[in-house]
Amino acid sequence: MTAPPDPAQGPAEGATATRRAIPEASVARLAVYLRMLRELAEQGAETVSSEELAVATGVNPAKLRKDLSYIGSYGTRGVGYEIAPLRHQLEEALGQNHAQSVALVGVGNLGHALAGYGGFAGTGFPVTALFDIDPDLVGIRINGIVVEHVREIPRVCAERKVTIGIIATPGPAAQGVCDQLVSAGVRSILNFAPVVLQVPDEVEVRKVDLAVELQILAFHVARRHLEANASTEANTGAGVNGHTVNGTGGLLQ
Amino acid sequence: MTAPPDPAQGPAEGATATRRAIPEASVARLAVYLRMLRELAEQGAETVSSEELAVATGVNPAKLRKDLSYIGSYGTRGVGYEIAPLRHQLEEALGQNHAQSVALVGVGNLGHALAGYGGFAGTGFPVTALFDIDPDLVGIRINGIVVEHVREIPRVCAERKVTIGIIATPGPAAQGVCDQLVSAGVRSILNFAPVVLQVPDEVEVRKVDLAVELQILAFHVARRHLEANASTEANTGAGVNGHTVNGTGGLLQ
DNA sequence: AGCCGCTTGTGAAGACACGCACAAAGTTGC
DNA sequence: GCAACTTTGTGCGTGTCTTCACAAGCGGCT
Ligand SMILES: NC(=O)c1ccc[n+]([C@@H]2O[C@H](COP(=O)([O-])OP(=O)(O)OC[C@H]3O[C@@H](n4cnc5c(N)ncnc54)[C@H](O)[C@@H]3O)[C@@H](O)[C@H]2O)c1
Ligand SMILES: NC(=O)c1ccc[n+]([C@@H]2O[C@H](COP(=O)([O-])OP(=O)(O)OC[C@H]3O[C@@H](n4cnc5c(N)ncnc54)[C@H](O)[C@@H]3O)[C@@H](O)[C@H]2O)c1
């Protein structure tokens, strides 16, 4: 393959070979395939073709096969994939064979819903620790787990071998909570608060931003509107195609 | 991880096609910039440089400037951007000047949290309609909004000019609910159920898949483990580029 | 006025992701 | 055992996103 020119780039690169790095985008899809495989297994299916699995998960079959090829999967040509082994291989690749232990901080509206959700435990992500700062919440039980005070984060996280933290506190509290989780050894964080968390390099943060999701949808609503109007006008308006639309279509701005 | 990007764009006349398409990835970031601008405005700031805004939102300054350039923004060289006008321009570009009306279907654990969340209304996305199929829930009020029966979707969505639908029902019910929303004229849907929704081309679906988010984190946990072990044998792994923050929520799929 | 330092806006190159298309490899039927 | 058929695994062209790097523009200072 193209020998990467490997420009000096500021800092020397780790050179560490991520010898067979799985593209980030593929990892996300692999997780989806895995869930679907579990569903299929429950329904008693034994094999599945890339075509079937692709349709069920809404992706392109070729892309799916390429994704699977990253984990060195072995399907059978002419047949497809045996569900059980493939599932097992995916679980291994995704780090799902040793169940992860999840801690959730902030048992408010959203946190409550997450803590009470059975679906996570079912897929290997048991929430094993809950934290809040509100004295009215500390001590209550959700799904059998007692809510602890945030000051207990270090002790409890160590005891329960927490590897993943979920932050569902208000924005202003998020960074502080994050710092506590990090110093308790948690190196993977899922953040629901609308703030950018500052973390050391070895910690990974994923952010779920629902307001942004809505805004993206709103953008497309607006775009559709503009397009609809534009084409209506185009039909009735002066026949001359002056010049299509300037910039954002005149309507906008 | 983001929603099914879009219609694969078939043969349809792309007449209006990509007029001046803003890259999907940029739209997501623009939404983040907008929120940060609001925050800055509240704090009384008047101008901001790309550098500052970039740090605050966790992106690369050059990328930020390019993002802004898509909406034809005008900053002042040597100074930066005036917050008020930039904010206004962003709101316009993102379709946020006319408040969108949001309907939420499925007032269970998660739906309840979403319905009760004040943050959406504050950013221009008032939830104006709630639906559920459970007779015990129909009729109750959340944040002043009465929960209606799902069979009322067509009427209520039309009356309240709903443009965005949120699905927070169990997986098996999602497709049915989706169909009802679509036939009620809703063309933008945010889906929390772990299923792939089937929709006509003109409807956009974004999927928020929390289980997948956890799985992605678990993958990196596993990878770090492997690397740690590997480098123990090898030399001082030195640098090892950690990956970190993934900027925005490009949520899954 | 003219210079200087700062910051924007963008061209161009690289990195990444996607999906087609096809050879290889297996299965089934005769 | 062979031919026909099915489905995988992947090389490669294409398009999108990211990032660098720098000229151009602007304000302030002398
Ligand atoms: N609820 C939603 O639908 C929704 C939607 C989008 C984003 N969010 C974001 O998710 C986060 C949580 O939202 P919410 O509606 O559940 O808020 P909430 O106010 O209902 O709950 C926040 C919880 O965090 C606790 N908390 C506050 N400071 C804390 C600290 N320092 N340490 C530990 N716990 C602390 C509070 O006691 C409370 O229980 C917020 O950042 C919000 O912006 C929520
Ligand atoms: N709660 C979480 O933290 C969480 C996390 C990840 C994913 N999810 C997903 O979000 C969705 C909702 O989760 P939840 O925990 O709120 O579930 P839930 O069971 O608490 O709530 C589901 C609600 O949908 C209603 N409903 C069922 N069928 C319906 C129909 N046909 N029309 C309208 N309403 C209907 C039910 O009456 C109930 O109120 C599920 O698909 C779940 O997989 C939830």
Automatic annotation (TrEMBL), chains A, B:
InterPro entries: CoA-bd (IPR003781), NAD(P)-bd_dom_sf (IPR036291), Rex_actinobacterial-type (IPR058236), Rex_DNA-bd_C_dom (IPR009718), Tscrpt_rep_Rex (IPR022876), WH-like_DNA-bd_sf (IPR036388), WH_DNA-bd_sf (IPR036390)
Ranges of compositional bias, category Low complexity: 235-246
The keyword DNA-binding appears for this protein: yes
Entry-linked SMART domains: CoA_binding (SM00881)
Region of interest: Disordered: 1-20, 234-253
Key words, A-Z: Cytoplasm, DNA-binding, NAD, Repressor, Transcription, Transcription regulation
Residues involved in NAD(+) binding: G106, V107, G108, N109, L110, G111
Function: Modulates transcription in response to changes in cellular NADH/NAD(+) redox state.
Protein name: Redox-sensing transcriptional repressor Rex
Organism of derivation: Pseudonocardia thermophila
Lineage: Bacteria, Bacillati, Actinomycetota, Actinomycetes, Pseudonocardiales
Gene designation per UniProt: rex
